[in-house]
Amino acid sequence: MSLLELQRRFRRALHGDTDAMEDLAPDAARRLAIHKTTIETGLAQTLLNAFPALARIVGAPTFTSLSSGYIANAPPRHPLLSTYGRGFPAHVAAQPIAASLPYLHDVARLEWARQEAYLAGDARLLDAAALDTDDAGTLSALQLRVHPAVRVIGSPFPIHSIWRVNQADVETKDILAIDMTLAEHVLVTRPAHEIVTRPISLADATLVRAIMGGAHLGAAVESAFEAAADFDVTQALARHFANGTFRALAG
Amino acid sequence: MSLARACGIGLRSAHLSEIAAETPDAPRTAPWLEIHAENFLCDGGPRLAMLDAIAARYPLSCHSVALSLGSAQGLDQDHLERVKALIARIKPAFVSDHLSWSAVDGVHLNDLLPLPYTEATLDTVATNVNRAQDAFDRRILVENPSCYIALAGSTMDEPEFLKRLVARTGCGLLLDINNVHVSAVNLGFSAADYLARIPAQMVEEIHLAGSTPSAAHPDLLIDTHSRPVSDEVWALYEATVERIGPRATLIEWDTDVPALAVLTAEMRRAQKVLTR
After folding, report:
1. Best residue in B111, B123, B187 to probe A by mutation, most A CBs within 10 Å?
2. Is the Cβ pair A25, B79 closer than 8 Å?
3. Where is pLDDT greater, at A42 or B276?
4. In terms of domains, do A127 and A157 share one?
5. Mean pLDDT throughout B122-137?
6. What is the count of structural domains for chain A?
7. Average pLDDT along chain B
8. A11 CB near a chain B CB, below 8 Å?
9. Has residue A110 been placed in a domain?
10. Taking CB atoms and an 8 Å limit, are A39 and B149 in contact across chains?
């Protein structure tokens, strides 16, 4: 048998085809189980590390069942485990539990956004002085760019509130106090290597998304006003500068 | 800088910020540190920033776990490029991975899987090792794996395979003495005989770690890296250093990682063996 055929059979055996290795090694089943356990434990821990709030919401037994299902259906396709879990939010959304906890998918998307933000590239941040001009035309034509770590997650549910009360350092899980009719949008940034996760208004989310899509500042602000006529653009931009949303114009 | 008489420790996430925050004039926690390359293959952010701070103060070794040097389908070019960029960034004293495989048909198995030791496997691994050495433009070290399964069809044993791999590619050996012990228990051979057959000049680095008997199958030993180095492994280490002379040695601890003080105590014990 070629080495390639052996590796293919080994892979099948690890993924549940218990007969695939029987003739290739003595005592194969229980010895393969050691590798199978190492692999599955490693992947389950990877998912738990990436989705801690989700795990707190559903509880350990349910999270284990969600992660086992994902691991069985979606083995890693990339050598870096830091990429493993990208499809987990969609997997969770397709499970029966998502019918009773419909916000799970968006909380999982938020946690994945934070994972991506943690590993994203570095860039110098834009100084507020860049907008320091009286020329409205110049301002309007400005093409801002977001920092590589920036992510915007929108949801019809109060996902920031739900995510926040499910942090390890929060004592009371007073999820009942959350107004479940609120739709929340969340901005993830990484100024000075710290992940910042904060709720923003729909108009602000629209602004950031427009800039991410390549719109000039004038057009982006216009689309934000279309989302909410009372949008306070000055205050929103000040907070973006404080939280490192935009990268320097050059370099 | 020669690390031949120095024992280092494996740098794990639990200790990253503590070591990165050391002031420039603080005593070093260890003479050198080994990283898992894959933990730092990201575009930027706090991990790489901490690694840069550590690289400025410590000699490093860059130990990969996912090159999959035993893959019949060859190496992943993108992964080679990523590791190459990390090597350029931290300028490590050693670059290494394992005599094992972990990828087939685009599926990645996050473990170090065994190979049958045949002429065909030797061709495959030698081709892959040469490709990695060409890509990195430097010699790499290949580590003997911990084995649980004796694959049918092997025509030579592991020491013989490693000797021929080194002769074919010019790579060095990262001799993991705990892995020899684990494989010896699991596959039923003598660890002392195995070690006695390893030519001294092949060995560039030594790994020491703890192992745990399998809960389900107490006759099998698992390479858990979750405990102190066992007495058996210390004895094998002392005999090996006695025979081949001192070599850069590393204490590995990957699961249930204890405080740095526990690791540095293990390190000092190895250091005594090296400086006898």
Report:
1. B111
2. no
3. A42
4. yes
5. 98
6. 2
7. 97
8. yes
9. no
10. no
**Residues of chain A found within 8 Å of residue B107, distances taken between Cβ atoms:** 11, 75-77
Residue B275's CB is within 10 A of a number of other CB atoms, namely: 10
Same domain, A185 and A94: no
The answer as to whether A118 is a domain residue is no
Residue A227 resides in a domain: yes
The reported pLDDT for the residue numbered A19 is 86
Do the chains contact at B216 and A30, CB–CB below 8 Å? Answer: yes
What pLDDT is stored for residue A248 in this prediction? 93
Backbone phi, psi, residue A144, to 5°: -80, 155
Selection from A33, A250, A85 nearest residue B216 by Cα: A33
The CATH number that domain B7-274 falls under is 3.20.20.150
Q: What is the pLDDT of residue A169?
A: 74
> Looking at the predicted complex, does its ipTM rise above 0.85?
yes
Residue A150's contacts (CB-CB under 8 Å, 6 or more residues apart) are A117, A187, A188, A189, A190, A208, A212, A245
Does A61 contact B at CB distance below 8 Å? no
Q: For the segment B211-253, what is each residue's pLDDT rounded down to a tens digit?
A: 999 998 899 999 999 999 999 999 999 999 999 999 999 999 9
The alpha carbon of residue B253 is apart from the nearest alpha carbon of chain A, in Å, by: 15
* C-alpha gyration radius of chain B: 18
In a shared domain, residues A155 and A195: yes
* pLDDT on residue A175: 67
User: In this structure, are A52 and A146 located in the same domain?
Assistant: no
Range of the domain at A154: 123-251
Terminus-to-terminus CA distance in chain A, angstroms?
54
> Is the pLDDT confidence value at B3 over 70?
yes
List the beta strands (DSSP E) in A67-219.
145-146, 151-154, 185-189, 196-200
Longest pairwise C-alpha distance within chain A: 80
String of DSSP letters for B33-77: EEEEGGGG-SSSSHHHHHHHHHHTTS-EEEE-S-S-TT-TT---H
Dist. CA A87–CA B213, nearest whole Å: 35
| pLDDT tens, residue by residue, B8-38 | 999 999 999 999 999 999 999 999 999 999 9
Q: Look at residue A246 in the predicted model and tell me its pLDDT.
A: 97
- The stretches in chain A having pLDDT less than 50 are 251
| Residue-range domain boundaries for chain B | 7-274
Domain assignment of residue A106, yes or no: no
